[in-house]
Amino acid sequence: MSLLTPLGLLGLLSVPVLLWLWRKQPTRRLTRIASLVPFEHLQQKQPHKRSRLKVNLLFWLQLAACGVLALALAQPLVRHAAAKTTLIILDTSASMGARTRGGTVYEQGLRALTDRLRSRSPLEKYFVVASAPVTALTPQPVGSAADVQAAAASFRPQATAGSLSAAAQIGQALLGYAPSSIVVVSDEPPPSEQADNLEWIRVGGKLPNAAIVGLDSEPLLCGQASGRLVAVIANFSEMPLQLRVRAKQASRVLDEQTVDLEPGKRSAVALAVPPDITGAIRVELDADPDALDWDNAAEADVRSATSVPVALSVQAEPVRKALSGWLNACKGLSWSEAAPEDPAKPFMWVTDQVSPSPSGIGSVIVIAGPPEASGQAPVYWLVDNDHPVGRYLAPIEPAGIAPAKTGVGEEVRPVIWAMVRGERVPVVAVREEEGRRIVAFNLHPQAAADSSQALVVFLNSLRWIMSGTGHVASAFLDPLESNLNEPASTWTVATGNAATGNAATPLASERPKLSFASLPLLPWLLWTAVCLLLIEWWRYALIKGRPPVAPPQDPL
Amino acid sequence: MRADWLSPELIRRLEAMELAVRWVRAGTRLGGRYSVNRRGSSIEFADYSPYAPGDDIRSIDWSLYARLDRLFVKTYKEEIALSVEVLVDATPSMGFPADKFERAKRIAVCLGYVALADRHHVRLSWVSAGRTETSPWWTQRSDLPRLLQAADKGRVGKQTVIAEWIRRAALTLKIRGGQAVFITDGMSRPADFFRAMHLLMVRHMEIKVIQVISPQELHPGKAFQSGSVVDAETEMETQLAYSPAELERAMADHNENLARFCKKNGITFVQHRLDQPLDAFVTKTLPAHGVLT
């Protein structure tokens, strides 16, 4: 037990005051009697020395009330280890907004959580965290089920993805200690190996849904036609669906396509965008049945692209030949092996010279050194998909192209690495300096029989350098949220003790710390004091109102 | 005059009662129904009595002296009435609690009524400081209104020493023979009480003491557990720093002391608590203790 205001114990000084009053009280009482004669011989004797205070029940009641009030002034807190803190993680990602017959999946989760709270321990406290975005719904652990329900009901699923593990880590960090248990309310499947202190409440189920899972909005690099939007749509239902996709700008429908899609399949739908169209274009998807709305729309911001001529300046003949073939494949691209006549106009260099080009908007530098001695040995690329140059490639791509011997220089950002004898060797790196973009290739274009990965990277590089003049951006819902039939789990084993920064500690091995809860005793003490004083008052009134001696019976 | 001194029912029951008389040794009132031998002269010779200094030498039977060589005086029969002195303690202690003195006066009225109904001579006196307050002798039933009037006027007076009052009254009122009914609360010093009783005894009085006391006085341990007390007699404030048991024992000892003295000296001692009904006390308790028959 601890005291919030230990100085309140000074109230115990009232006890000596009470004792003094009780010693003084008999001397203050004045009783008139007929005569002192019968007691004269008593007065001649020395009165008994008062070794102890003459008290009655009233005194003990008053003493107890003084003690309790003094203790109440000190505001004691009882710390007990029995209190449990439960971290409740509410999945508020977009998939929880899917419609079902009984409302949304999130509302199902709230009802399930309410049922869970009915069986709660009185000393259990809850800390509620939403997963998307990660938000603490209660500022501190609360002990009331009503508070938990109110906090949960005040939040709604958001049109975004979320990570349950991240929410658990942040929740523990906000809590400051490892909770006794974690309750996850989600439509995601529970982990296969579930920790003892993890309680998984799964809601939702298999729901039909169709979604736009990708939107590539860029001008055609290799075509002569105008730009287009490529929307990738997917059918996550267990039945074939007829999907209608349209591109709109304001109320103007730019293009519309209808696609029949088998269950679990996806398809890319090209939507033509007239050349004069720039700005925000909305792509919409119609499907029936469809449980989730947020993934039926995507937006692309299309800016006017500039056709930039390409100047190919490559010394190595095999390399020049390979690159010429790649450039020729792009019919919409104008290129030449000589520098443009007007150097003032923007153009782009493709060269095998290490030194940057003196002019132009950017360079693709192909270091066409001889391949590594590994030859056709299996090589894996590690791709940074966050950079446009790494688009359309898997994060780990089996490639037959090994890096060249020469490095790509300093102050660059590698985008693609090759794993060579256990070491990461940069293959493609990018650099931006003074408004110019440079992509450095550390490979030979024809070093392998299948050079498709190299071609993708080359075209990505051209597109990235040209995007400096025609920026294109797109936004759509994370496809993971759209798959309601087989939702992906965002719960990983990396739910460690965030407070200690040990995020890699798996939850199953986390031993909850002994958490203490403080129970304020002030209300109990005040009630006790009031009861004591009432009993004392009742007793006092009883004594005052009672006749001194009961009337005796007539002896005869 | 108050009309509630005696209820018809009480009168009816008192009518059937008499004062218990053990002896009548002397009396000054003639014409009563009690016969006594007295020195002096009368018509009917009664007996001889040894000569005692102070006897009238004219009553010496000289012829008997010649035969026996001892002096005897002749006594003669006289019919005398019983003198009943009703003495009511009117010291300040009788005024606390207030109904104690009132109860004492009611007892006095009851006894006076019984005495008058028996044609005794009754006199009512208030024992208090100052002039000796007493009534004239009432001798017949028609004196009852005067008895009630005197009771009506009775008030608690100032503190006095009872023995001193008796000594003074014996001289001034010529108390001698008969009965003395002393109604008191007993809140006087035992020595004072004993001396007063002795004074009455040497006056050949048959004494009956009725102690009127309140329950609070009987059990001081419950009433005065702590604090200071004020003596109603002396107005003196004293702190009683004693245990309730000590106070109870002191009061019991005091009352027992009085009762033991009375018993030892042939004095009837009756205690009346204020919480007892008066009618029952007069009609049952007093006859049981030999005050009335």
What are the main properties of this structure?
heterodimer, A: alpha/beta, Rossmann fold, Immunoglobulin-like, 4 domains, five-stranded mixed beta sheet, 28 strands, 28% strand, B: 293 residues, alpha/beta, 2 domains, six-stranded mixed beta sheet, three-stranded antiparallel beta sheet, 10 helices
Q: What would you note in describing this structure?
A:
The complex is a heterodimer of chains A (about 550) and B (about 290). Chain A has about 550 residues and is α/β, with parallel strands linked by helices. Chain A has 4 domains: about 1-80 and about 520-545, no CATH class; about 85-205 and about 485-510, Rossmann fold, CATH 3.40.50; about 210-305 and about 475-480, Immunoglobulin-like (Sandwich), CATH 2.60.40.2950; about 310-470, Rossmann fold (3-Layer(aba) Sandwich), CATH 3.40.50. Helices cover about 25% and strands about 30% of the residues of chain A. Chain A is built from 10 helices and 28 strands. In chain A, the strands form 6 sheets. Chain A has a 9-stranded mixed beta sheet, covered by helices on one side. In chain A, helix 1 (about 15-30) packs antiparallel against helix 3 (about 55-75), helix 3 runs antiparallel to helix 10 (about 520-545) and helix 4 (about 105-120) packs antiparallel against helix 5 (about 145-155). Chain A is elongated. In chain A, about 35% of the residues are buried. Residues about 495-515 and about 550-555 of chain A have low confidence and may be disordered. Chain B is an alpha/beta fold and about 290 residues long. Chain B folds into 2 domains: about 10-25 and about 80-290, 3-Layer(aba) Sandwich (Rossmann fold); about 35-80, no CATH class. Chain B is built from 10 helices and 11 strands. Chain B has helices at about 10-15, 60-70, 100-115, 145-155, 160-170, 190-200, 215-220, 220-225, 245-265, 280-290, and strands spanning about 30-40, 45-50, 70-80, 85-90, 120-125, 135, 180-185, 205-215, 230, 235-240, 270-275. Chain B has a 6-stranded mixed beta sheet with strand order 6-5-4-7-8-11, sandwiched between helices. Chain B has a 3-stranded antiparallel beta sheet with strand order 1-3-2. In chain B, helix 3 (about 100-115) runs antiparallel to helix 4, helix 5 (about 160-170) packs parallel to helix 6 and helix 6 packs parallel to helix 9. The longest helix of chain B has 21 residues, at about 245-265. The mean pLDDT of chain B is about 85. Chains A and B meet through helix 1, strand 2 and helix 2 of A and helix 7, helix 8, strand 9, strand 10 and helix 9 of B.
